[in-house]
Amino acid sequence: MLKCLKSLLFLSLFFQFSCNDNDDQPDPVLPDAEFTDRVVTSGLSYPWELVWGSDNAIWMTERGGKVSRVNPETGTITIVATINEVESRGEGGLLGMALHPNFSSTPEVFLVYNYVTVGGEYSEKVVKYSYNGSALINPQVIFDGIGALNYHNGSRLVISDDLKLYITTGDAGTVQWAQDMSSPNGKVLRINLDGSIPADNPVSGNAVWSLGHRNAQGLVFAKGKLYSSEHGPEKDDEINIIQKGGNYGWPDVNGFCDEAGEQSFCNEKNVVEPLVSYTPTIAVSGMDYYDNAQIPQWKNSLLVATLKDRTLYQFKLNEAGTEIIETNEFYRGEYGRLRDVLVAPNGKVYIATSNGSDDKIIEISRGN
């Protein structure tokens, strides 16, 4: 009997330690998933922003001034606003959009677009709307006076967990604005949702969060960090981590601080270098963060749409989110120029084309 008790005790301890050891092991690596793509809807004209709504619809802006809800299953489009004030010139028009994080209880929609002022100047502003269940109403201008041109207007919007609105702005062709703290251009701006300036911004009373940007068109929060994608000139498109008060160098620095003429400026201004740069440029645009088990090989990755390169890029991050450790390319040339990418909560991915004729929203999902 004693031997049996000892044996049972031994087996109990053995299984206990074995289970504890297994608990300490990392999760198994899931095999790569095959995925498939389909056209959700077509016949669009320069879609610019895709945002997932709490109503399980894709909210979309088109550069000409339309805001719509798209049913991701049927592709049915419901227009919720046509903003006649929008002035689309070249790359300008209705651009970025963000929905209030608590949209079901606070149905607010934030838009950034180009328009013509009373004085006849081409300009850019951020406007907050309310959604009444069928249309956008009660526009309130919360930030104005951003310089505009027919190119280099930015502009993405994203709202943080602490309810701050981040806005990317381009240099609007006036490169010196990017280093001028009195100008909102060539910056990442940070404001409260009512348009006021947060007390903890780098400079009191100033909306500037970071400076030295040429034309950032991608913006996403992930892993407690703010990532952006930025157009370079003929060289050095960038993927950046945006830091409070950071200087990203433009127009004195392109990409890394790796040219002789850049060193003194980099040292003086403590320039923040990108995670990666591309020469020749690939025209990086909208971006989102993927961390869903539906496509395991994309977990912990930035997905970036490109215009000139006509490709969806996957930038896999290290665990800290401080480095890109792997890069893969998908759908090169299959759908033309790609403006934005959206990751839905169920792990499906949506990309918007920017060809100007019969533009589309494409769904990428796990294959059967």
Automatic annotation (TrEMBL):
Record GO terms (molecular function): oxidoreductase activity
Domain of life from the UniProt record: Bacteria
Signal peptide segment: 1-21
UniProt key word Oxidoreductase: yes
Keyword tags: Oxidoreductase, Signal
All residue ranges annotated as the Glucose/Sorbosone dehydrogenase domain in the record: 44-357
Gene3D superfamilies named in the record: TolB, C-terminal domain
Family matches, as Pfam families: GSDH
EC numbers on record: 1.1.5.-
Keyword Oxidoreductase: yes
InterPro entries for the chain: 6-blade_b-propeller_TolB-like, Glc/Sorbosone_DH, Quinoprot_gluc/sorb_DH_b-prop
PANTHER family: HEDGEHOG-INTERACTING PROTEIN, HIPL1 PROTEIN
Protein name stated in the entry: PQQ-dependent sugar dehydrogenase
